[in-house]
């Protein structure tokens, strides 16, 4: 019996090597290069032998916190509008509906942003067990509740107005499932995928939750403009720091009819808005454009402020998220939930996930409890 088991194991190994010979070769080359690099590092700096991955990540994490924050004044240069387009609704996950803007032919990538989904998840639908590597996800829940669970034993729920910042790093497998609301209503929110700098793609996974009550708020223009400062700075109010590795500003803005806002944005950041409710007029001078509900407004990289207003004659308030992120000067190669910098790294991620190595060890035989709630 032992001999039979050994023979089967050897046969499976041989077949696996034949089927995945390209990935195995790439893995071997990558491993050999990594060993050589490590040996060279030790030779040039013996003290590096005592350093750890986590300490390197923390010391190399660059949060945008300049000594002089951007300020909008008469000398500010308004950002021009690059394009405005509708986020078309489509199916995603298991029964969920999303309006995707970033990550479509209209806007494939917009560094550091990889994807933006405005999701609606009804009971019996959701995002069951799936992997990630190489990016961060930011989930902002607008209504309802969403449960989360991963292969490391982390679990929790975000409610309306809460956010979760997840760093996938070297690898995570998790599930995101909607709360079953008593009235059968859908759970609605935004999920933004943000690229990680190349030197942080192998960091350990982590989470940062931000509760609605913790989000600083500001009112300007005699109360006609209300801003939730989720991340970044607005109206002299700073957000909670240390939520994501890649520097990102997120502002939830609501403007009443007659309200105006000139919001400073950092140079070197890409900026866009997504219209949640009503319509707002963005831009400056003759280049103003009206942006309707479910539309994404993309701004040119030049300039240091975004101008927006809602006409006095508007029938209601306008609400949108204004998002800015530091442009990363790096190549992006994406295959589904794996976001790396080269085709070789993507193949490596697929190999690691398939064979439960290099960050995916705990994915073997793991199944979330919340994923079992799916209706089959």
From TrEMBL:
| Domain Pirin N-terminal span(s) in chain numbering | 96-194
Please give the residue ranges the record annotates as the region Disordered.
45-71
Q: Name one Pfam family in it.
A: Pirin_C
The source organism is: Anthostomella pinea
UniProt similarity note: Belongs to the pirin family.
Q: Which InterPro entries match?
A: Pirin (IPR012093), Pirin_C_dom (IPR008778), Pirin_N_dom (IPR003829), RmlC-like_jellyroll (IPR014710), RmlC_Cupin_sf (IPR011051)
The annotated regions of Polar residues compositional bias extend over 45-68
Q: Which domain of life is it from?
A: Eukaryota
Q: Where is the Pirin C-terminal domain?
A: 251-357
**Chain segments annotated as transmembrane:** none
**What is the protein name given in its UniProt record?**
Uu.00g070510.m01.CDS01
